[in-house]
Amino acid sequence: MIKAGIIGASGYAGEELLRLLATHPSVEVVAATSRNLAGKKISSVHTNLAGFYNKLIFENLSNDDIKTLCDVIFLAVPHGASMDIVPELLEKSKCKIVDLSADYRLKTAEFEKTYGHPHKDPREAVYAIPEVHDVAAELKNSKNPRLIANPGCFPTGATLAVAPLAKTGVLENVIFDSKSGITGAGNTPTETSHFPNLTENIIPYKLTAHRHLAEMKQEISRLQPGFSNVCFTPHVIPAARGIMTTAHVFTKEKYTTKDVKEIYSEFYENKPFVQLVDGVPSLLNVRGSNFCHIGIEAEAANNRIVITSAIDNLVKGASGQAIQNMNIMFGLKETEGLWFPGLP
Amino acid sequence: MIKAGIIGASGYAGEELLRLLATHPSVEVVAATSRNLAGKKISSVHTNLAGFYNKLIFENLSNDDIKTLCDVIFLAVPHGASMDIVPELLEKSKCKIVDLSADYRLKTAEFEKTYGHPHKDPREAVYAIPEVHDVAAELKNSKNPRLIANPGCFPTGATLAVAPLAKTGVLENVIFDSKSGITGAGNTPTETSHFPNLTENIIPYKLTAHRHLAEMKQEISRLQPGFSNVCFTPHVIPAARGIMTTAHVFTKEKYTTKDVKEIYSEFYENKPFVQLVDGVPSLLNVRGSNFCHIGIEAEAANNRIVITSAIDNLVKGASGQAIQNMNIMFGLKETEGLWFPGLP
Amino acid sequence: MIKAGIIGASGYAGEELLRLLATHPSVEVVAATSRNLAGKKISSVHTNLAGFYNKLIFENLSNDDIKTLCDVIFLAVPHGASMDIVPELLEKSKCKIVDLSADYRLKTAEFEKTYGHPHKDPREAVYAIPEVHDVAAELKNSKNPRLIANPGCFPTGATLAVAPLAKTGVLENVIFDSKSGITGAGNTPTETSHFPNLTENIIPYKLTAHRHLAEMKQEISRLQPGFSNVCFTPHVIPAARGIMTTAHVFTKEKYTTKDVKEIYSEFYENKPFVQLVDGVPSLLNVRGSNFCHIGIEAEAANNRIVITSAIDNLVKGASGQAIQNMNIMFGLKETEGLWFPGLP
Amino acid sequence: MIKAGIIGASGYAGEELLRLLATHPSVEVVAATSRNLAGKKISSVHTNLAGFYNKLIFENLSNDDIKTLCDVIFLAVPHGASMDIVPELLEKSKCKIVDLSADYRLKTAEFEKTYGHPHKDPREAVYAIPEVHDVAAELKNSKNPRLIANPGCFPTGATLAVAPLAKTGVLENVIFDSKSGITGAGNTPTETSHFPNLTENIIPYKLTAHRHLAEMKQEISRLQPGFSNVCFTPHVIPAARGIMTTAHVFTKEKYTTKDVKEIYSEFYENKPFVQLVDGVPSLLNVRGSNFCHIGIEAEAANNRIVITSAIDNLVKGASGQAIQNMNIMFGLKETEGLWFPGLP
């Protein structure tokens, strides 16, 4: 059994790792840290886990403690905290690390521009959306084969929506109009997450300057070099989970829906977690699962294609993809512990 | 024009008073106090009021200031704060007061038992559900004809549900299983109001010991002296507004649905805000309005009657009823400024 | 009192006309037709109206009957039905007509292209968004001064979002990504309106070919002649009411947010129902009201401006705007019967 | 592998069986029938299953066909249809049957009284809530050891809520005030399931005469012989899944919360799917899972105990419990294929 530790296990990403790993046949969670909850039973905090993890309690462990206990560490900490932890963990242990924060996703220069302060540990991690990159090969070739930067939720939905077209090199202009469930904003109650403010509403935010834009541009330009004509406007919808990305894609040439479907079918062949659907995808059909469902409709008249993609922001957009990446790191089958349908 | 002041205008009850008074033909709001928001324009905080109250700003007024400006003062302050303010306002001005807090609702002894601390101002106010009591007459006979204790939201829905049967003296046992929108808990974000915790859920709370129980018992026993066999369990539903009260009523004798409907029709004759409906009421049909809709179904076999009542907790359960009571205090038509339908 | 009739009073638009006209000081509803509901009391069907319209019942009236009873007729019938009724009503009576259907919105040629069949009555009506056009003047100059084509819900939100920029002539490319409450789809239960399919979801539909696109293009090109670079993708959100339009606007030149706000302030001066808000608008702040709230944010780097507009689809997007237009037709104050805040 | 067939696989119960069995290690679904959907791929209808059941299509199979294919048959047909199918399946094959309909739940006399028509096949099945009855033993002793009557959703939540007290023989009066997600009403769109009617609402229905009452009475009186003082009022809440039962229990003697918790702990020892929680349970914590969470609070003053239980109506209230019962029938571990946490 792979021994796993979760640093920052009290938030949504940590909770979701615990939920998913509870039934992973090759992993045992041996440590879950939380300063605030130290001493409490896991299932007394995350009550959906009653019956699981009967002996596991939240602990306030040092890095030293955790690295001796674990084969793999998931960092589910706030952005900015990972770069304080990773160097020591990598250098003083054999642990593999999957970092769910934003710290190692961007090239250092882009990180500093986007976040407005220097990066404390400018080492490169492997940024891993396994349906877009050959993660196993990239790890092999990396200077840091034990460090994966797990992608952001919006960039996962957005990149999967346009990757096949980007790879074909035909993007001219892309506007991502994304709609996310409110769990994306974390489990601390806020004005936006206050039920009377969100029910029967939809809340656009960071209309022109969300930090995930840099990540989208970086990843899409790896597929279509030189392309940077990307806009991104996120919204919060009255839903707990899920990201629906509506990608308004303008291309250099005209396409029919059939053309585009062929490009996507080929690109996503043998990628079990990406499923092309007739019509439009539904957040409910991917809920709780690691799937990404994609719908395609071309508007030849305007050289426009509307791609819609649906993921669960906490699974394919965070903890599920982290486990998928862990599976790859350890040479397990990519789908292990993740092969179950969404919960409509 | 009646000059009105609202003390505590930043919360839901205050916001709702501002919404309702914006179109009241006989009232002008001249003061709205809030310590935190002092200096801000009303409509910059309560954006639904953009276009209204163009000159009104939140102020941090002293009692002295406010009592010289106003003919009527609405107290929309946290429970416990009114009893610090009322004595001075009553004694040093001619202002009329409608207190939306719980401070003057219970007889002093019952208050102290329920809230666990002494009452600072044990004077009696007129507790006013106008469909149950003759408020004008009670004010006339009161030692404190300028002080109205505006009822709580749950007690309003519960009392209206059973008053006609209580008046008939036939109650044996009543269980109020009430379901409230989350605005009843105020506008500060909490774990319970956090969207992911409430959506697709229903949250029972204070199962056996909610403070409103004392208020229910007091009012129902005024109608059926000696009766105290009342249980109350509230729930929060995934809705912003509204209280659905399911009253499980056991009676001394058997009734048919028709019998009960006659009792209610007679009791609520000439009470424009109470409407008996076929089948069951809907929170949507009373939303935003001062109406209470009531449905009736008897189960003769068990000497049981199920009464369902629907109100908007912020209107009939708080600010609307406060204005209705103000209308009565000033000799206006009870419905003035409040006669519009619910918003489904 | 203006005597009003509503043809098709059983649907959402009809219901909303009844709700709004219940408190209009200058209008009395004298007829409400519905074939299916004929004989039923209005308030037994639209229970939110209990206490109003105590004598009004749904009737199955002929055009002859209705035109002798009414000064104004609201057509709240399915698209395609108005053109069967309008000619006779106009020619054989003095009635004024506000048509809420799509029949008279488009120029005849465009109508036939969009709807795929001939128009039975190719007369021109006055298409009336009063904040964009001088409706009174247009009526005066029209050959059909008694016929108003009331705009569609999506086109109202979209046109108000970009009209000031279009008038300035600077649009280069506009993508409307619109999000509507499900009442826009009518009150017949469908797969899309089935609660388990919509809750916690957002459903994109007619991604490239919604019929309202033609209406948007027609109206925007009246402001910026020759401009037709408009894309439109609607979504249904888990909400009953409201349309949030996210307009991704690409302009010929760069603008700052401040620049754009000045253009909008000037354009919408003296238009009481359009309010510019800081940040982004909220569907809740306009709910139940005739307001349109607009937020503005420019992204100078990309020559892009994101305009967000919020309306209630059943009020400003249908019945409220119809009454606003009726007010103008009859020389009443535009805001009469409509001047109340939204219900958050 | 156990070969399973699902008759009536297009409804919610059938869909949920397919979802759950997709990952059951000992079961292969070999047939799924639906008259309307015959010929369609499973995953084209239940899109959450994209990636699963790649070869399975809906078929319009005869009973003859299905009984030769299957070791176990799940009947997910409308009430009244099972009794037409069961006799032939039992008598002409070796198939085991789990009937999810109401047909075999009640003793024949009670069935006829409740449903108002004769029962076509008055044989006794084993009614199986495995936490309340020893299902394996009952099957062994039954004349019909191959037929399980799977309990109704409300009776499951209600019976689990009070079984330990009933077993102790102390019930005096029980009122079940139950709140269900709308999937309980099936997947055909109706007025009640129409999103604008249910959002921000709660709908009481069948206030005194729901058919599940007979089932509750039958099962509770098996535990406390002679007891029939049970009332039941269901509500629909704006949620897709879940049943929250608020059981207002009046007992012959006084209990403290601690007393009651001990009774429940003992009763549910070694019942992995029932978990006692601190405070109140949450529908979200059991969503998608086979768990029942129970909260307990006693009000000694009134001899009242409020028990709250939460289940997923489609899992523990239907398909999950059906699989649990199938596991028992085949001598598998009760939790096989069902041991995963809820999805909050």
Biggest chain pair contact, residues each? A-C, 42 and 42 residues
- Strands across the major sheet of chain A, in which order? 8-9-7-10-13-12-11
Give the number of DSSP strands of chain A. Answer: 13
CATH 2nd-level architecture of the largest domain in chain A: 2-Layer Sandwich
Average pLDDT metric of chain A:
97
CATH structural fold name of the largest domain in chain A: Dihydrodipicolinate Reductase, domain 2
Strand fraction of chain A: 15-25%
CATH class group of the largest domain in chain A:
Alpha Beta
**Helix/strand order of chain A, N-terminal first:** EHEHHEHEHEHEHEHEHEEHEHEEH
The share of residues in helices of chain A is 25-40%
**Number of structural domains of chain A:** 2
Outline of chain A: globular
Strand count, sense and barrel status of the largest sheet of chain A are: 7 strands, mixed
Describe the 3D structure.
The structure is a homotetramer of 344-residue chains. Chain A has 344 residues and is an alpha/beta fold. Chain A has two domains: 2-123, Rossmann fold (3-Layer(aba) Sandwich), CATH 3.40.50; 153-313, Dihydrodipicolinate Reductase, domain 2, CATH 3.30.360. The first copy, chain A, has helices at 12-21, 42-45, 63-69, 82-92, 108-115, 135-141, 153-168, 195-198, 212-223, 257-267, 283-286, 315-329; strands at residues 2-7, 27-33, 72-75, 96-99, 126-127, 147-149, 171-180, 203-204, 230-236, 243-251, 274-276, 292-299, 304-311. In chain A, the strands form two sheets. In chain A, strands 8-9-7-10-13-12-11 form a seven-stranded mixed β-sheet. A six-stranded parallel β-sheet of chain A has the order 2-1-3-4-6-5, sandwiched between helices. In chain A, α7 (153-168) crosses α10. The longest helix of chain A is centred in the middle third of the chain and has 16 residues, at 153-168. The radius of gyration of chain A is 20 Å and the shape is globular. Chain A starts with a strand and ends in a 15-residue tail after the last helix. Chains in contact: A-B, A-C, A-D, B-C, B-D, C-D. Chain B binds chain C through residues 15, 19, 22-23, 44, 46-52, 199-200, 240, 272-273, 275, 277-278, 281-282, 284-289, 291, 293, 339-344, and chain C through 15, 19, 22-23, 44, 46-52, 199-200, 240, 272-273, 275, 277-278, 281-282, 284-289, 291, 293, 339-344.
